[in-house]
């Protein structure tokens, strides 16, 4: 009995060690659109990881448009400390951040993804290029792959691609994968992402729990609480220490042309706001506008804490202002 209890205690301790001690925060940033004087505290939380967008893989497996992200990493990275003989301490400028910087790697289009995943030579060239990139740029802590709208026929090939890339990167770099929510998104999109298999072959998954309502759908919340809860139920088989919950910092104004809204743009609409399932709704002449409420962000915080998920990933910097 004593041996059984000891084994049980050890197993529980190991499980706790694998789980994050607190909810981490990831922030997606478009390098060219960082607001002046930005405070880097989405929903008043300090970020642990920044994912810089803009890079793409083309049909030849070439990594394109990394310059803006690299320049931003250089600009916002913590400067080297200087030895000082005096007792006076200096504070680094506010723009410098002690965080882990990642590069988001998307596709030029879905056909590029199909080519990379189906052609052995292109696959090898793209993996070699990604590995060479992180080895060449020491400020990059890892890569996040964001392959979207690729046919589900390539789902197994994508898992194999992640496996090969992860093994080539080695333990010094992190590999995460952005995936569609498993519930309530078009099957042709979500079926490409095999969540349990991708989780097994990567360091973490970012489940994009936004765009339930989006351009092309009926008006509604970007992330309604009921839909988020249904997706949490569907994530039960995943290792919690690898799961980031993707949360929106934006809303939409629906109409003949649906456009994304920042908080200030939503607040500037001169109409009465009504709360519904995690978002505020205002009626405009062009169509209804929606923006997340504080209750939605509290729900994300509670879900992350209760389930001991790795963290929350916010899309994207500036829209909350």
Explain what the structure shows:
This protein is an alpha/beta fold. α3 (110-118) crosses α4 (120-136) and α4 runs parallel beside α5 (155-169). The chain is built from ten helices and 14 strands. The chain has one domain: Alpha-Beta Barrel (TIM Barrel), CATH 3.20.20. It has helices spanning 2-18, 67-76, 110-118, 120-136, 155-169, 187-190, 195-201, 225-234, 263-267, 294-307, and strands at residues 24-29, 49-57, 63-64, 100-107, 140-145, 174-180, 204-208, 243-248, 251-253, 259-261, 274-276, 279-283, 288-292, 311-315.
What's this model, at a glance?
Pfam families: Glyco_hydro_18. The chain has helices spanning 2-18, 67-76, 110-118, 120-136, 155-169, 187-190, 195-201, 225-234, 263-267, 294-307; strands spanning 24-29, 49-57, 63-64, 100-107, 140-145, 174-180, 204-208, 243-248, 251-253, 259-261, 274-276, 279-283, 288-292, 311-315.
Mean of all residue-level pLDDT scores: 91
- CATH H-level name... which superfamily? Glycosidases
Helix content, binned percent: 25-40%
What general form does the structure show?
globular
Provide the β-strand percentage band: 15-25%
Whole-angstrom Rg: 21 Å
**Biggest β-sheet description:** 8 strands, parallel, barrel
Distance between the termini: 58 Å
How many DSSP E strands? Answer: 14
State the helix count: 10
Strand arrangement, largest sheet?
A: 1-2-4-5-6-7-8-14
């Amino acid at each position: 009995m004593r041996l059984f209890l000891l084994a049980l205690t050890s197993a529980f301790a190991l499980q706790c060690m694998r789980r994050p001690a607190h909810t981490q925060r990831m922030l997606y940033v478009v390098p060219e659109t960082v607001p002046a004087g930005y405070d880097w505290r989405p929903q008043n939380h300090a970020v642990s990881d920044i994912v810089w967008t803009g890079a793409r893989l083309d049909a030849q497996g070439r990594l394109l448009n990394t310059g803006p992200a690299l320049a931003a990493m250089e600009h916002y990275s913590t400067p080297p400390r200087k030895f000082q003989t005096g007792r006076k301490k200096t504070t680094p400028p506010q723009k410098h951040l002690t965080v882990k910087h990642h590069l988001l790697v998307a596709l030029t289009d879905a056909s590029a993804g199909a080519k990379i995943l189906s052609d052995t030579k292109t696959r090898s060239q793209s993996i070699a290029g990604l590995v060479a990139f992180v080895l060449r740029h020491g400020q990059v802590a890892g890569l996040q792959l964001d392959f979207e709208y690729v046919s589900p026929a390539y789902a197994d090939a994508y898992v194999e691609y992640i496996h090969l890339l992860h093994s080539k990167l080695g333990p010094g770099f992190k590999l995460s994968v952005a995936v569609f929510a498993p519930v309530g998104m078009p099957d042709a999109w979500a079926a490409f992402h095999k969540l349990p298999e991708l989780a097994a072959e990567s360091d973490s998954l970012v489940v994009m729990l936004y765009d339930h309502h989006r351009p092309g759908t009926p008006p509604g919340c970007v992330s309604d609480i009921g839909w988020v809860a249904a997706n949490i139920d569907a994530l039960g088989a995943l290792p919690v220490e690898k799961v980031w919950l993707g949360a929106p910092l934006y809303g939409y104004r629906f109409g003949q042309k649906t456009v994304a809204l920042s908080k200030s743009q939503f607040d500037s609409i001169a109409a009465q706001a009504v709360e519904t399932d995690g978002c505020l709704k205002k009626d405009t002449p062009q169509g209804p506008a929606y923006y997340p409420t504080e209750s939605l962000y509290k729900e994300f915080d509670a879900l992350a804490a209760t389930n001991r998920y790795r963290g929350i990933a916010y899309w994207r910097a500036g829209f909350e202002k």
